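Session log. Operator J.P. requested a structure for one protein chain; no other inputs attached. Running the standard single-chain path with token output.
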Amino acid sequence: MNQATAVRHGGALLIDCLVAQGVERVFSIPGESFLAALDGLYDNNIDVVTARQEGGAAIMAEAAGKLTGRPGVAFVTRGPGATNASAGVHVAFQDSTPMVLFVGQVASDQRDREAFQEVDYRAMFGPLAKWVAEIDRADRIPEYVSHAFHVAQSGRPGPVVLALPEDMLSGPAIGQAVPAATLPSGEAAERDIAAVIDRLAAAERPLVIAGGASWSAEAATALGEFAETMGLPVGASFRCQDFLDNRHPNYVGDVGIGINPALAQRVRDADVILALGTRLGEMTTSGYTLLTPPVTRQALIHIHADPSEIGRVYRPELAVVGQPGPVVRQLAAAARQRDGGTWVTEARASYEAWQQPEETPGALKMEQVIAHLNAALPDDAILTNGAGNYSAWLHRYYRYRGWRTQLAPTSGSMGYGLPAAVSAKLHHPEREVICLAGDGCFQMVMQEFGVACERGANVIVLVCDNGMYGTIRMHQQRNYPGRPSGTALANPDFAALARSYGGFGATVTATGDFAGALEEARASKLPSILHLRLDPAALSPKLRLENT
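Structure written below.
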């Protein structure tokens, strides 16, 4: 009896389909609604990482998608499991990350009765995913899985959600796994490449803003070659700072939250903007002010994988459909020599000046913490973070030296850093992985530290504790001065938490003690938490708390 005619349950067929797609690891919280799929994983070489909450599992899968360019995969149960996982789906959608989420569902004969934990997933995930479907026939599992992996990776990548009725998984299934997804090259037409080169060659003050999905280490190298040949300053869109080695002479800083004012002015003064892969969203455009919609002051060249994204907010002068990774390699090959002159050198100089630390209040200074990380970490270290003012020091002062050394959500999701760090360490056990998290950010997901300890994933977490939800406190100070409300936090001993899991924990209260604590954590070879006790007065790299 061959595979095509072998009778097994739907869960086993589903897992065979994942193997055919090249899936090596899945992230999950087990649930009774997909027991047959868990059974299918038993006799398989796929690594099953058991998270502590579905949001953590989904973020781990999203981070895996970022790291590999292939869909990260998560399994969660129905109802509460699915709603918890929705946070990771939203990150994947806004970050254009390939991901496939499998969600358990009530048996098909119980649908539309509001059965236990029943949810209409098409309605729930419709605005959050590229495609949502429910597999109601076991013999169509190969078709649905193949389509899911094509959709997740094609055009603008993103998440796909497949619901799995319990009886479909547990019932008999006859079928054969479909080979891995076949994807288009993503290259642009040669005439479009020539038009881009011509327009940039004629510009006086061109500027590249790089971002989006479907990049690679090779593409990052090509970006540097292209920029150097054509004399182009390159800015990174929000949380895409590892797209070009920050030491490159043409790298001029990040175009995002807390942008260097000199760089912001340079964006305004540019005569041509090449938006290479980025959507030019709110964070990258400083609330749609650096480039004003619908027709920008600057001539806009927009290269994006999704034709429906081009012209959605901004009308470009030149529009090119293509994946930014393949396209930038085409651009590098077609580039012709151009002298960037003082436009590039002055932009680089303003970036270097912006890198000089500004002193903040307190005995433990985040600008010096980041300076030490710059000096102490290897070029391939991976740094992760979620959302919060603590990340502003990282974004401003850390220099990313290689592709995919930054894992951070462009969606601004709190709680991202720790699950992403665990996923990164499992994928790259040979590399150092450092997570920065605020005290509020960390406590949304701190249970996932247990996964790190269980799996021996020796991440190092820097918990930046200022006793408040600092970003919101900052906005309160700006908009309602003297009226703080709902932002104070009473925190535990985070170092003791690490030790309770069997990891390494230390508390740092002064700048001079940080280097030693970091070395102890590295030497321990254990998952580690360094509890950084910060002065609340240091709200951000430039803003101080009122009445301090």
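Operator note: Residues 54-68 form the longest helix (15 residues).
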